[in-house]
Design brief:
The structure is a homodimer.
Chain A (H helix, E strand, L loop, with lengths): L4 H10 L3 E4 L6 H16 L4 E4 L24 E5 L11 H5 L5 E4 L10 E4 L5 H12 L5 H14 L10 H13 L3 H9 L4 H11 L3 E3 L4 E6 L1 H7 L6 H4 L11 E7 L5 E7 L5 H7 L3 E2 L3 E6 L4 H18 L8
Parallel strand pairs in A: 1-2, 1-3, 3-4, 4-5, 7-8
Antiparallel strand pairs in A: 6-7, 8-9, 9-11, 10-11
Chain lengths: ~325, ~325
């Protein structure tokens, strides 16, 4: 059942002993909104903890203290930034499926699995939590401001993505006035890359190839590059976005070699190219602007050609795209 | 002579026929504040043009129209975001040295060369222009909002740098509400790079050297790299930020070779290292977190060692930094 924000506030006042669930592979918004809400509930005299199926990356350690993370039996269960129960992840999904009483989310694709859902299409769940805390009369608190700034800044690519609104900046101004430690948080979230990351990026950039009058760029990351740079697969996330950033490119593909020699393909596109259509044809899937599929190991050259042909087909199909032909 | 913002407003009301000078190698803030001010002056019924010694990069073309750029004889001369007359650049410096009547700037290192100076230490001159336009009662205008958003977003690395304050976000919220086309501007400023840029980045990254237990990283861009990649000096701006982003690095230096063989040094630091102190000792200047100086051509190795020694001195000087010694 969809509810309004004042009903969320009433629920939080009426109950006690909260367990806040985040999604798996936790990011700044699920953690920022989870811990922000946890600190606020404690200020209200309630007990609250956060549970995540995965280990929380060390860079987020400023959001909480020892003892804030863990399971609580018989608690009132809230999920934040979790569009689908399955995203609660291994262990947490099995235990809490069908048991989430309240979900606070900003994904319009939310599966409405919770008993009550507050959904708003905005840049980050932390924007919603901010409004909620104002409604609840929570005292200004620098640690809560840190939590909410973390969610908003990370889910907007530090105010670069198209989900940013005037309200996003307004809330950020308030969080800074409260004392959010934005300099340190920005450093941790956006300005801190390993030496290995840049070794990998340098090598990957040197493989860039262009097709179809420069409308498609393909970058390759080999196992050798990963080994030489001492980086992990998670380090590739930022790099996959590069081919699309190149002037004139409508579809950017990153081919990432797996230890078994197969390749994971990450596609990114600009309007009007739909990556998910391309990837669906190749057995993968995803969103319009970001999707993925796999290339087999037996014949990588043949599979790469198939990928390029499928991309070409999609470019030709859309008569809003002016191709040379 | 230092003046207050209301005096700047009075001057703009009292005169007509303005020539607004930007600094050489124009960036988003000097152009955004220049054209933002130009559009506002025209709204006030005044004539105004912008002059820049260098060609304005094509990506900024949405800021102005044909005929907005050029020299005007007998005009009231204003400089925006120009800390030192010499930065007016070839041709403009020779003609307008000693003739700037009003300078609006945010560099605390401003040389006070203008007859009247309004100086405020804030993220971008565009923040000052915003306050000035409010004071002048300029009507809300989406193109002016585009200009001011451009300066603020680029001078803050899209809200990532430590120069961002609550006021920076407040002003941005207002600019978005007025209709600044932030999605398109962000794409142009931050998500649109040339093929050459990435060739240059790949080559530059491969030169990274580390000093002083990894607290200092040095990257070199040679004329050969610029030639091979077909990039211009202005393409280097984004790259200069990289060394500081590496984990553990407190001072990042980028050495950029000029056609004559001299090197321009861009320093970027994290708190508490003061780049401007390092650069001042070497005949340069700038801000605490971003500053610059020059290395001569006669003995680049000796000069580079001098730069490293000066950096080391600054690292050792501050007892908040734990060095291995």
């Amino acid at each position: 059942m969809r509810i309004e924000l004042n009903e969320v506030a009433s629920i939080l006042k009426a109950n006690d002993n909260y367990l806040i669930l985040t999604h798996r592979n936790p990011d700044g918004d699920t953690l920022g909104s989870g811990f922000g809400l946890m600190h606020a509930l404690r200020q209200m005299g309630k007990s609250a903890k956060v549970l995540c199926c995965d280990e929380i990356p060390a860079k987020y350690s400023y959001l909480y203290s020892d003892g804030d993370v863990g399971d609580v039996d018989g608690a009132y269960v809230i999920a934040v930034d979790v569009a689908d129960e399955k995203l609660l992840g291994e262990g947490v999904y099995e235990k809490y499926s069908g048991k989430v009483k309240l979900c606070i989310d900003h994904h319009i694709s939310n599966k409405e699995y919770a008993e009550k859902l507050y959904l708003r299409d905005c840049s980050a769940v932390c924007e919603i939590i901010y409004d909620l805390l104002v409604m609840l009369g929570i005292k200004k608190d620098a640690q809560i401001a840190d939590c909410l700034y973390t969610g908003i800044s990370t889910d907007t690519g530090c105010y670069k993505f198209s989900n940013v609104t005037a309200r996003t900046h307004e809330i950020t101004a308030k969080l800074m006035a409260i004392g959010a430690n934005t300099v340190e948080i920005n450093k941790l979230m956006f300005e801190s890359k390993t030496r290995g990351y840049y070794m990998l990026e340098s090598a990957a950039l040197s493989t860039l190839e262009y097709y179809f009058d420069g409308m498609c760029a393909v970058m390759t990351i080999t196992q050798k590059m990963l080994n030489d740079s001492g980086t992990k697969e998670s380090d590739c996330d930022g790099i996959s976005g590069i081919p699309r950033k190149i002037e004139g490119v409508l579809v950017g593909a990153t081919l990432r070699e797996r230890p078994d020699g197969t390749f994971k393909v990450s596609l990114r596109s600009h309007d009007p190219v739909d990556c998910s259509k391309i990837c669906l044809k190749l057995g993968g899937g995803g969103h319009a602007r970001a999707a993925g599929c796999e290339l087999s190991v037996e014949n990588i050259e043949r599979d790469k050609q198939l990928l390029l042909d499928t991309i070409k087909e999609e470019l030709d199909r859309d008569d809003r795209i002016y191709t040379a032909q």
